[in-house]
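Project outcomes to date are best conveyed with an example. Our students and postdoctoral researchers have been running inverse folding experiments weekly, and each run begins with a structure described purely in C-alpha cells. The record below, which covers 405 residues, was selected by the lab manager from last quarter's runs and is presented without edits.
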C-alpha cells in the first residue's frame, strides 16, 4: 500500500486499512491457491473508497481440504486495538453431495459459484438484535462481506469454478483483543468484528466513533427500550452502578459526542433521553458546547464564573473560578462564597435549554450532573421522572408508547 496521510490537530497521521480489507485480501489469496494452486505472496484489492492496496500474504498453510492465508492488519496511526493482528481466510471446496454448512452467509450469484462465509476462531458471534449482522451469525459486517464475496467470485470466474466454496475468516488473537473493544457491550461474544465501510482506517476518526454510538442506539431501539440512557464514559458508568444502582449495560456510551447522540436518538425514534455525566463534561453544555472534548472547547470555568458573577460573587471569587483546574476546585470557591446552589440552578437551567434546542420537539432530553466528590450537583426539570423509570423493576412508563410525553 502506498502510504497516505491526513492531518488532524496539526499532526501528520498515516492512514491504515481495515479488518475488512485484510479479510478480503486473505480470501482472495486463499481462494486462488485452493482453486488454481497459485501461491500468492501479495494480493491487490481496491477498497470501496477507491484506494488500491497491495497487501502481503503471510502464514500460508496448505491442507488436505483447503488453503489458509493470513494478512496483517495495519491501522496506520490510529489507536486501534486490532493493529498488527493477523486476519486469516481459509478456502475449502465443498464436494458434491456434501451437506450445506449451517449458520453461514451466502453470496447471491445468478450464475457461477455458491460461496458460504463464516467466522472461525476469534471472530465474534452476534447475540443481540439491532446490529448490522443477524443474531447467531459471525460478526462480519455487510461491506466487508461484500468485499470478501467479490474477491472470491473474481477468482472463481478466472478459474472457471462453478461449484461450492466455503470461506472461514478467523483471528487467533481476536478473543483476547475483543475485551478492549465495544463488542462485549454490544452482545458480540467470542472475538472481534470484521469491520470497515471504506476499507481504509482514518486516524482518530470521528466518523468511526459516531458510528459506534449509532450502532448502540439502534440496538437499544431494537430491544424495545422506551427511554435512552446515555453516559459520556467510565465515570458515568461507575456513577450509575455505585450511586444510582442502575446496571451500566443499560446505557449507551457517547464519549464527547453528546450532540450527535441526541441527533441519533431522534433518528431512531426515541422520545425520552436521560444523560448522566460528570460535571467536568456536562457543565460545558450550559454554554451550548455539544462536543465536550477539550480540544474542541472548554467553557466550564467561564460558565461557572459568569453565573457566579450574576449571583453577586466578587471579582476575587470570579478570578479564582476562572483559574481553577477542576470543577471540584471551582465548586469549592462557590461553597466559600455561599452561592453554589443558585449558580448550579442556573447552570442546570441552561443545560436544559440547550438539550431541548438540540433535541427539538420530538425528544425530551434531561440530564443529571455529578462529581465524585460532591455526588449529584443537580438535575434538569424532568430528569427525576425519567430516572424513576430505571429504578423501578417494571415501571408502567416503559410499557406505554405514550409514556412521558
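After processing, the design step wrote out the following sequence:
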Amino acid at each position: 500500500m502506498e502510504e497516505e496521510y491526513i492531518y488532524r490537530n496539526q499532526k501528520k497521521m498515516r492512514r491504515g486499512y481495515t479488518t475488512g480489507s485484510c479479510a478480503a485480501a486473505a480470501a482472495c489469496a486463499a481462494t486462488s491457491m485452493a482453486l488454481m494452486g497459485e501461491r500468492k505472496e501479495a494480493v491487490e484489492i481496491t477498497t470501496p473508497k477507491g484506494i488500491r492496496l497491495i497487501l502481503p500474504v503471510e502464514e500460508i498453510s496448505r491442507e488436505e481440504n483447503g488453503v489458509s492465508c493470513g494478512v496483517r492488519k495495519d491501522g496506520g496511526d490510529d489507536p486501534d486495538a486490532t493493529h498488527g493482528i493477523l486476519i486469516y481466510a481459509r478456502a475449502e471446496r465443498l464436494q458434491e453431495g456434501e451437506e450445506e454448512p449451517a449458520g453461514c452467509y451466502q453470496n447471491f450469484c445468478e450464475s457461477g459459484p455458491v460461496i458460504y462465509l463464516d467466522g472461525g476462531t476469534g471472530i465474534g458471534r452476534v447475540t443481540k438484535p439491532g446490529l448490522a449482522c443477524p443474531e447467531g451469525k459471525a460478526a462480519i459486517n455487510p461491506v466487508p462481506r461484500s468485499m470478501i464475496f467479490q474477491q472470491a467470485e473474481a477468482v472463481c470466474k478466472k478459474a472457471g469454478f462453478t461449484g461450492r466454496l466455503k470461506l472461514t475468516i478467523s483471528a487467533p488473537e481476536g478473543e483476547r483483543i475483543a475485551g478492549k473493544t465495544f463488542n462485549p457491550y454490544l452482545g458480540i461474544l467470542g472475538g472481534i468484528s470484521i469491520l470497515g465501510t471504506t476499507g481504509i482506517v482514518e486516524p482518530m476518526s470521528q466518523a468511526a466513533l459516531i458510528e459506534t454510538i449509532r450502532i448502540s442506539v439502534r440496538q437499544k431501539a431494537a430491544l424495545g427500550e422506551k427511554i435512552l440512557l446515555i453516559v459520556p464514559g467510565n465515570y458515568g458508568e461507575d456513577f450509575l452502578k455505585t450511586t444510582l444502582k442502575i446496571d451500566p449495560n443499560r446505557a449507551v456510551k457517547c464519549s464527547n459526542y453528546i450532540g450527535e447522540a441526541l441527533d441519533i436518538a431522534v433518528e431512531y425514534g426515541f422520545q425520552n433521553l436521560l444523560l448522566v455525566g460528570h460535571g467536568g463534561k456536562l457543565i460545558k453544555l450550559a454554554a451550548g458546547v455539544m462536543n465536550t472534548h477539550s480540544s474542541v472547547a472548554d467553557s466550564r470555568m467561564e460558565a461557572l464564573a459568569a453565573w457566579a458573577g450574576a449571583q453577586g460573587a466578587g471579582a476575587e471569587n470570579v478570578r479564582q473560578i476562572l483559574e481553577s483546574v477542576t470543577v471540584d476546585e471551582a465548586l469549592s470557591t462557590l461553597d466559600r462564597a455561599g452561592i453554589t446552589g443558585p449558580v448550579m440552578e442556573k447552570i442546570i437551567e441552561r443545560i436544559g435549554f440547550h438539550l431541548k434546542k438540540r433535541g427539538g420537539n420530538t425528544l425530551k432530553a434531561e440530564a443529571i450532573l455529578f462529581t465524585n466528590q460532591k455526588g449529584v450537583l443537580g438535575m434538569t426539570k424532568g430528569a427525576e421522572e425519567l430516572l424513576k423509570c430505571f429504578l423501578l423493576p417494571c415501571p408502567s412508563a416503559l410499557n406505554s408508547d405514550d409514556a412521558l410525553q
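The two ends are 53 Å apart (CA to CA). The CA atoms of residues 286 and 351 lie 4 Å apart. The training component of this project remains on track.
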